[in-house]
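re the bet — no i am not wrong, look at it urself. input seq straight from the record:
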Amino acid sequence: GPALAAKLDRLNLKTVEDLITHYPFRYDDFSKISKISEARIGEVVTFKGEILSIKNTYTKSHKIMTKAILNDGSGSVEILWFNNRWIIKNIKPGDKIQTSGKLDFFAGKINLITPEWEKVDSLQSSAISHQTLHTGRLVPVYPETYGLTSKWLRAKIYQLLPQATASLDDPIPEAFTKDLLPLSEALNKIHFPNSYSDILQAKNRLAFDELFYIQLSSLKKRADWQKKQVTKPLKIDEEKLKGFINNLPFKLTSAQERVIQEIIDDVSKSHPANRLIQGEVGSGKTVVAAIIIYLTYLNGLKSILMAPTEILA
């Protein structure tokens, strides 16, 4: 509907591709299931148990507070949600749930406050269910907007990702990515990793793609420039250039002479030159720039010299 579309638009999410490339910015580690009797205050925990009771009540400031009691066989803990009156329509006494969050004090009691939760089918196994999405695993947390939570984004990505990756053609040839994850696997692992190693492998592949496209774009722009005569080649007055260099109070190094010749070759052509000179402090970059500025002057043109030495210092 239009209301949800407007919220998605605030995150620039208009297509399925936008959604599955809306990457998590961090992960909550809810992978270890704890016993209620052994958990400590301040810990981030995951409990799996049965709801004994749940009800809505009010705080002193008249805000809605939902209280639930969860029992896992080793003990019980109170769970609190604020301003979520609808939860009692989704969770009933007797429901088996898995819930993840931080144990903290509230009103003098230990509580699990506003945790993530989801229903589970069985309490028999202490192992993490592969069906859990919001608890009991490395849980992705996404850039959000008002009215659009990570839980909602997580559920939709989980629903759409298998369909999207099943028919996904990797646009980058395998020769470039043979040591990296396939794109579909990287997308699955960035959203729903089983380990930190999964996250690292996925990031390596997706970061490679991003840099690859930036480089490809730069090469395409350069190729486009070279197809057009957008600048006049500089005329090189060898005699005046030699006189300028001979009047320097020092002799140029072989590296400086080589770089100057490379730049002269660039500016002698009919397409723009892009060149970056890299060297240690004191290696003579400035005199190279001065010589090229002199050549530009001899052609009746202007140069700009920016020297942010003070800023760098």
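see?? The first helix runs from residue 2 to 10. told u. also Residues 86 and 194 are 31 Å apart (CA to CA). so pay up
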